[in-house]
Amino acid sequence: MTNKLRYTVPGMSESDAERVVELLQGRLDATNDLHLTLKHIHWNVVGPHFIAVHEMLDPQVDAVRGFADELAERIATLGGSPCGTPGRLVEHRHWEEYSIGRATTQEHLGALDLVYAGVIEDYRKGIEELGELDPITEDMFIAQTNQIELFHWFVRAHLEDKSGNLSTAGATSETEAASAAG
Fold this sequence. Notes:
Blueprint: H1 14-44, E1 45-46, H2 50-77, H3 86-92, E2 103-104, H4 105-133, H5 135-157, H6 174-181
Parallel strand pairs: 1-2
Helix pairs in contact: 1-2, 1-4, 2-5, 4-5, 4-6
């Protein structure tokens, strides 16, 4: 993938468009990773709440796949070339590979709590920067963050007690969160 834009949208400087494309590509990498992780969890959950979690994840997978498509199309709209290859994803991600295999629903949801938290934090950083660069892409990031935060709440509802305390509170790795939730 070349970072050189052939053109961009009217009213946006090339340098601003290049930075927006960079932010979009980062979210494209994250959403490609996230939808694959969600599907991995979908296939590997076990236990008494299997069907509830298994079925809860499919709409999340579909939505996140749609986000990836929107991000890639925005990159192309700005004159960039979106890259969705596995090699690109592995080479450029700044997070660890999801490491939980066959495990209980609670263990997977504990790990997913941390995954979603990281994705949301990165989206919010992008939103802060996009306010100055491109309100169109900022709106896209806001809408996607809204949906991901909702999915995060669905996950966290399984992890909290009646007082609202999360079983994963203080966990710093997905294996630690999985253990705490299990």
